[in-house]
Specification:
Elements (H helix, E strand, L loop, with lengths): L25 H4 L7 H5 L39 H6 L3 H36 L3 H28 L8 H12 L3 H26 L3 H28 L5 H21 L7 H6 L4 H11 L2 H7 L6 H11 L8 H5 L4 H6 L7 H15 L13
Helix pairs in contact: 4-5, 4-6, 4-7, 5-8, 6-7, 7-8, 7-9, 7-13, 8-16
Length: about 375
């Protein structure tokens, strides 16, 4: 089996990606974990097709010139006095908000592409047939997410923005890593947790009904992807040695810190400010004055805050111990988070979306079953 995977349960055992011969082992065909069967079977309940207008119609109009696609509160730069005063013209302000939204949705698109490649890479290394089938299933679902977000961006902006350096570096590291634990913790927990928080926020606050519908449809899939990581944590984390736990815990904390201080930071958006005639250095300087630890703590009180969701994901997985608890405790009340249980933000939104999809997929047009975005 491949080195460095920190495998504790047979269903997560892995081989080298170039070791196809192991897949032809006759005894392997006679054994298959059943741990993922319910997730695999449930795909029929939340099937949707971004190319079929009965699920979602990307031709639905939205006045991008006169209406902001999301509220100002989701645009950090507008919280600075400099940017807010410089963009006093209503239409220019709307254009700035919508261009910021383009970068947010482009990041989601790039993240979905990363999830597609990563889940496909798991098919090459996971030895257990059940785990391998789950990964293949997720690959299919991530592929439709790429299609859907690409179509949404094309409908609203024409072309996506480039991937930010920080997100690109993280995705390349996770996808190219030979260690299965990095793939599962990095993608199924950190990136998927980040996505669930972002999707829930956009679903609740976006002004574009089409965008909100897209968020909910994607969340019907992502809620199950999150469960794959949870099963790994339940089967793996309790059996780690202190040294192994420290390796995983430190790597997760490193990734979290990188995302926290860079993902939505102004220095990642310099081209946007220049496009609107703003001085990027001044924007960065003013943002640094308001982006304090106190401000981050206040933001993380909101259930849909993406970084709060990340911390809760790691906490519920048992990855946060006394070694790193104080680090995360700088931003959230860890006892309060623990008291919230396993329910994740977006679960209810996803459940409503699945109920809606059942009315289409099983032709059961029951009264009162409507997607929440409508």
């Amino acid at each position: 089996m491949a080195d460095g995977n920190i495998t504790k349960d047979v269903m997560y055992e892995a081989v080298s990606p170039d070791d196809f011969e192991s897949m032809l082992n006759l005894d392997r065909y006679g054994s298959r974990s059943t741990a993922f069967d319910r997730i695999i079977s449930a795909t029929h309940d939340h099937f949707w097709d971004p190319l079929d207008k009965k699920y979602i119609d990307f031709d639905e109009p939205f006045d991008m010139e006169n209406q902001a696609i999301m509220p100002e509160e989701l645009v950090p730069a507008l919280q600075t006095k400099y940017v807010s005063e410089a963009l006093s013209d209503p239409k220019e302000r709307i254009r700035f908000i919508n261009q910021q939204a383009l970068r947010s949705f482009s990041s989601i698109l790039h993240g979905e592409q990363g999830a597609l490649n990563l889940s496909a890479s798991l098919c090459h290394v996971l030895y257990d047939q059940g785990a391998q089938e789950y990964a293949a299933n997720q690959t299919r679902e991530e592929a439709r997410h790429v299609t859907a977000f690409a179509k949404y961006i094309k409908a609203r902006w024409g072309r996506p923005a480039k991937c930010s350096p920080v997100l690109q570096t993280l995705l390349v590291e996770i996808i190219g890593s030979p260690e299965v634990y990095k793939k599962i913790v990095g993608m199924q927990m950190l990136v998927e947790g980040l996505a669930m928080g972002a999707f829930a926020t956009f679903f609740q606050k976006m002004h574009d009904p089409l965008g909100r519908k897209l968020m909910q449809l994607v969340m019907t899939d992502e809620a199950f992807h999150h469960k794959f990581g949870k099963i790994w944590a339940d089967r793996t984390v309790p059996h780690l040695t202190p040294e192994e736990h420290a390796v995983i815990e430190d790597w997760a904390a490193h990734c979290f810190q990188t995302l926290l201080f860079n993902l939505v930071a102004p220095h990642e958006q310099r081209d946007l400010y220049e496009e609107f005639g703003l001085d990027p250095d001044r924007v960065v300087a003013e943002f640094a004055e308001i982006a304090t630890d106190d401000a981050r703590r206040e933001d993380m009180k909101e259930a849909t805050n993406i970084f709060r969701v990340l911390i809760k994901t790691l906490l519920n997985a048992g990855i946060i111990s006394d070694r790193t608890r104080a680090f995360y405790g700088m931003y959230v009340d860890m006892e309060e988070l623990k008291g919230e249980g396993d329910t994740m933000v977006g679960d209810a939104i996803a459940e409503d979306g699945i109920a809606y999809l059942k009315t289409i997929n099983f032709r059961d047009h029951g009264a009162g079953l409507k997607i929440a975005a409508e």
